[in-house]
Amino acid sequence: MENKTEVGQEKDQISLLMPYQMGRFQLSHRIVLAPLTRQRSYNYVAQPHAVLYYSQRATKGGFLLSEACGVSDTAQGYPDTPGIWTKEQVEAWKPIVDAVHAKGAVFFCQIWHGGRVSNTEFQPNGQAPISCTDKGLAPQVRAAGVDVVRFTSPRRLRTNEIPQVVNDFKLAARNAIEAGFDGVEIHGAHGYLIDQFFKDQVNDRIDQYGGSLENRCRFALEITEAITTEIGAYRVGMRLSPFANYMECGDSNPKALGLYMAEALNKYELLYCHMVEPRMRTLVEKSDCQHSLVPIRKAFKGTFIVAGGYDREDGNKAVAENRADLVAYGRHFLANPDLPKRFEINAPLNKYNRETFYLSDPVVGYTDYPFLEEIS
Ligand SMILES: Cc1cc2nc3c(=O)[nH]c(=O)nc-3n(C[C@H](O)[C@H](O)[C@H](O)COP(=O)(O)O)c2cc1C
C-alpha cells in the first residue's frame, strides 16, 4: 500500500518536471517564473543587481517572465519600475538577459501600461494619466500592505489617440527583442490599461473601443496585431485576468470575456495565453471560487499557462490533468530562487516576506533568499 502511494506521488512530481515544447522553445520543465514587479529599477532603468536576481532563478530550459516594463513615458505608475522605451533602458536590460541566457533559460519581457493606475507624479509634465475612461480610482493599499497609493483621475483617450498607444506597445516589443529577450508577454491583466478597456466596470466609452465585448477587446487585439506583425506571433504571449477585480476593474461576464479573447488570440496564432486563476480576487488574495479556466484552456490552441496561488501539489495536478501546460509561480519563486530543484526533491520552501517585496534595496528581500545548499 505504502509503495503504491509512493509511486503515485512520484508520477505526480514528474508532470511539473516533464519537458515541454512551447512552439520553437524547448523547455525542460513546467515551472515558470511569474512576472514580479520589484521596484528596484531606479529612474525606470533596470539595474545591474537584476543580473543576479534573474540568473538565480534561471535553469537550463526554464521559462522566465520579466517584471512589468513600461512601454512609454505615460505607462508608469509606481516608483522604480523598469521601462523599455528608451535606448538607455534597452541597453540596461542586455546584461540581465545575457546572464539568463548563459544559464540556458528562455526569457520573455512583460510589456505594460498602467493606464489610470498612476498619478501626476509619474506622468510627463505632471499631466493626468491616460485611460479608456475619466473615472478615477480610490486610494489603495499595495499588495505588501506597507504603503498606500493615490491615483489621479485619468484623462479619457480620444479615439484618434489610441493608435499612438498601440504603436508604443509595438515599439516596446521591438525594443525587447533588441535587448535580447526571446519574446514578449503583453500585460492584459490586473486592472492596468488593457484590462481597463476589457472590463465593463471601467470602460464607459461610446466609440468603437467601448460597449460590446467585441469593442472592449479591440484595443488588446490591435496591440496583438501590431506586435505579431512586428516580431512574429511565435514569440508573443498575453496575460489575462478576466475574473479578477483588482484596481476596481471587474467584468459582469468574465467567462465570456476569457473565451472571446482565447478564440480571438487563436486567429493570431499567439504562442501562449497566460491566465490568472478565478480564485485570485486581487493580485495575491486567494478565495474559494466555483469558476474554472478549463473551458478557456480548451478553446485556446496554443500553450496555456496558469497562475495564482499554486503550490507544488496543485501545480502538478493541473499539469497531470491537462488543465495547463505550464504553471507560473509568483511569491514562491520570489522567495525560492531554486524552486524547480525544491519541487523536484520535495524540499521545504523559504517563506516570502511581503514587507520586502517592493523595498528598493538591491539585496535585501531580493537576492538574499537562500538556496537549499546554503541552508544545509
Ligand atoms: C511582488 C509582486 C509583484 C508582482 N508584479 C507583477 C507584474 O509585474 N506583472 C504581473 O502580471 N503580475 C504581477 N504580480 C502577480 C504575480 O505574477 C502572480 O500572478 C501572483 O503573485 C499570484 O501568483 P502566486 O500565488 O504564485 O504568487 C505580482 C505579484 C507580486 C507578489
TrEMBL record:
Cofactor dependence: FMN
SUPFAM superfamilies: FMN-linked oxidoreductases (SSF51395)
NADH:flavin oxidoreductase/NADH oxidase N-terminal domain segment(s): 16-349
Keyword terms of this UniProt record: Flavoprotein, FMN, NADP
CDD domains: OYE_like_FMN (cd02933)
PANTHER family from the UniProt entry: NADH OXIDOREDUCTASE-RELATED (PTHR22893), NADPH DEHYDROGENASE 2-RELATED (PTHR22893:SF91)
Similarity comment: Belongs to the NADH:flavin oxidoreductase/NADH oxidase family.
Protein name: NADH:flavin oxidoreductase/NADH oxidase N-terminal domain-containing protein
